[in-house]
Amino acid sequence: MPRPTTKQALLDLSRENYNKLNALIDSLSPAEQKGTYPFEHRDKNIRDTIAHLHEWHLMFLAWYKVGMKGDKPDIPAKGYTWKTLPDLNQIIWQKYQSVGLADIRKEFKSSYDKVRRCIQKHSDEELFEKKRYKWTGTTSLGAYMISATSSHYDWAMTWLKKYQKSLG
Q1: Measured between alpha carbons, how far is 34 from 19 in angstroms, rounded to an integer?
Q2: What is the pLDDT along the chain (168 residues), one digit of tens a residue?
Q3: Distance CA 41, CA 100 (A)
Q4: Distance (Å, whole) CA 8 – CA 109
């Protein structure tokens, strides 16, 4: 499916990819769901990948809250730049090491629902007009939402499919 350019397309693709991601996880046995990836990657297992998505939902929601009040959010996070993203992602990885897969999946569902409600608040113009909001810079609010949802879920499915393929 092409990159969303309307509110409905964004809602549809984010839901479709969210559902595909969860269906892929659910297609694995409980042992496989808790298994370790047999390849080099920052994330070592499904829990790590889902925790990463969840944390990026939370980061987006924090940017949105600050930005929509007219302030400038710390993007990607306070003390980090896009160039230091690997360091930030490593901190995220560490943050969730004591959380189980079932718990992080519940948290992921909750943060996903919050992002969807955020999308639903806006018109097509509010979502996809570039430079509409000072805090989004030269891009659109929708571009941030796509990155936090459908395209990030695609990224996660790439790793989960690679893991699934390794299982035989």
Answers
A1: 19
A2: 689 999 999 999 999 999 999 999 999 999 999 999 999 999 999 999 999 999 999 999 999 999 999 999 999 999 999 999 999 999 999 999 999 999 999 999 999 999 999 999 999 999 999 999 999 999 999 999 999 999 999 999 999 999 999 998
A3: 19
A4: 20
CA dihedral 147, 134, 117, 22 (to 10 degrees): 10
Q: What's the half-sphere exposure (Cβ side, CA atoms, 13 Å) at 91?
A: 12
Letter string b/e over residues 38-59, b meaning 16 or more CB atoms within 10 A of that residue's CB: eeeeebebbbbbbbbbbbbbbb
Do 34 and 48 contact (CB within 8 A), yes or no?
no
DSSP characters over 26-69: HTS-HHHHTPPPSS--S--SHHHHHHHHHHHHHHHHHHHHHHHT
